[in-house]
Amino acid sequence: MDCNTSDWMLSELRLSKAYVRLCTLPDDGPETSVSLASIGNHEIRMLAGPKPLFWLELFDHSMKTSVDSFRRHRLKDAVPVFSDFVARANVLNRTGETS
User: pLDDT digits over 33-83, tens only?
Assistant: First the structure.
């Protein structure tokens, strides 16, 4: 198993665990998202939608706004989006740019 396969599997596991947590949040509760990663001022999170729909969001805490988001139905389709968000958050934090 190569490094890319391992990274893919770890990301899919992280997304799966977050989705399970998201599905167990009370419908009338204040929380509607689960944090996947925090990178500097940026956070990648999963937001609830009508099941099985969910959103991945790259959020900039310093600007208090969403940088980007994607809607997904399947966890395996979310892995490349999650990887892209991690890379983008790293670049944004390194360069000190905002969205």
Answer: 999 999 999 999 999 888 778 999 999 999 999 999 999 999 999 999 999
Q: Do residues 34 and 45 lie in contact, with contact meaning Cβ atoms separated by under 8 Å?
A: yes
Q: Following DSSP, what letter does each residue of 4-60 receive, concatenated? A: HHHHHHHHHHHHHHHHHHHHHS-TTSS--EEEEEEETTEEEEEEE-STT-EEEEEEE
99 has which bridge partners?
Answer: none
Alpha carbon 75 to its chain's center: 11
**Three-class DSSP category at 80:** helix
What digits encode the pLDDT tens for the residues 4-33?
789 999 999 999 999 999 988 887 777 789
CA terminus-to-terminus distance, the chain: 36
